[in-house]
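Minimal example, chain plus 4'-deoxy-4'-aminopyridoxal-5'-phosphate.
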Amino acid sequence: MTLNPNSIEARDVAYHLHSYTNARRHEEIGPIVIESGEGMHVTDTDGNRYIEAMAGLWSVAVGFGEKRLAEAAARQMQKLNFYHTFTHKSHTPAIELAEKLVAMAPVPMSKAYFTNSGSEANDTMVKLVRYRSNALGQPRKKKIISRIKGYHGVTLASASLTGLPNNHRAFDLPMEGVLHTTCPHHWREGRPGESEEDFATRCAEDLDALIEAEGPDTVAAFIGEPVMGAGGVIVPPRGYWQKIQAVLKKHDVLLVADEVICGFGRTGRMFGCETYGIEPDIMTLSKALSSSYLPISALLINERVYAPVAEQSSEIGTFGHGYTASGHPVAAAVALENLAIIEEKRLVEHAAEIAPYFQEALGSLQDHPLVGEVRGVGLIAAVELVTDKAAKVAMQPPGSMAAAAFGLIQKNGVISRAIGDALAFCPPLIVEREHVDTIVEATRKGLDQLQATL
Ligand code: PMP
């Protein structure tokens, strides 16, 4: 395809390096330029309208074009466009948001700390964990365990926690002190005849063996998403979190719940921790915190974490960490308004109500010859594509099948996301049955179109 050299697409190719994009392929095909959004839909510069079945990047919970958020931003921008939270300064939006998040937390939390992205929140978590161990006189207790296919971001530390080859390969990662344990995907990793419970037991035994092998006095924390998102929407097997938490308790290892995708209603409860009975010491939050209208993220830490960190900062003289925009007043004001909308419109309850319809409708694709597994919980799901259901294998090269299906489904008016050989779906929480029907119809049609080419 040749792009008109004066077009917006050609200018993008000329000047813009894209995230998660094959740069050479991008030079050939150019971007789809999204121009506007309203509710469940976005529209591109050619006038094509799509259902955004991924809520952008798992994030636009209240839907696109919410005027109340634009107004909240404008009000705060006019009152106090910026102030920081260093050196004993504060401002009302950050204070109110910290208070609100601690009150909302599913387990007793002590403090909120503000950052600007999920990656920064998890990076900050790594630093807090180190700082705490030093404060407690446990300088060896620094290692952090995450999981194969877990996704925690792309800064040097958070990309190390992420358990995906593309985030490590050619970046010289993971860094030292980060370990990865078993991916809890029963369909893919379970042995023939192994029940979900037995597989969950094996995952916990693997974690226990890893901690024992490394030495419990060297392992500080374990991080996991209640439901894995960007690694392919992997729903934990029955009993998984109870068994994992027992191992962590036994070895005095902190539990970090990465709620960047699950937080604020995605799984049908306010937090994924509530859906799975997880009792974390630290939570990281972003995305639906502001519905991604502005960048903001947060950590919630309990007293076990706060007390030694506070002690250490007073010994050193300062907590030597912080971002210029930590708790940015405009982003915090937008987050507060976003949380107010989620509560007033009862979007978490709505997500729980519509979830069975969403899961069953997508589940109906299981009968399609190209579908190996449909999995999900609440309003997040994945459809795993295969060419051979029994062998659980897809087209070569890996990822090409979902990429092809994704393109066809997008032409049919629905934006999903290709992850490996799976298609992910994570619509705004305002999704209604008619949108679900359209998403499933466009997907089935796309799979039929793909099958016709095989
Ligand atoms: N944690 C999880 C669970 C995520 O899904 C993501 C982003 N997809 C991140 C962390 C990183 O967030 P960000 O892209 O804002 O750095």
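The two ends are 24 Å apart (CA to CA). The pocket of 4'-deoxy-4'-aminopyridoxal-5'-phosphate is lined by residues 57-58, 117-119, 122, 151-153, 225, 229-230, 258, 260-261, 286 (CB under 6 Å).
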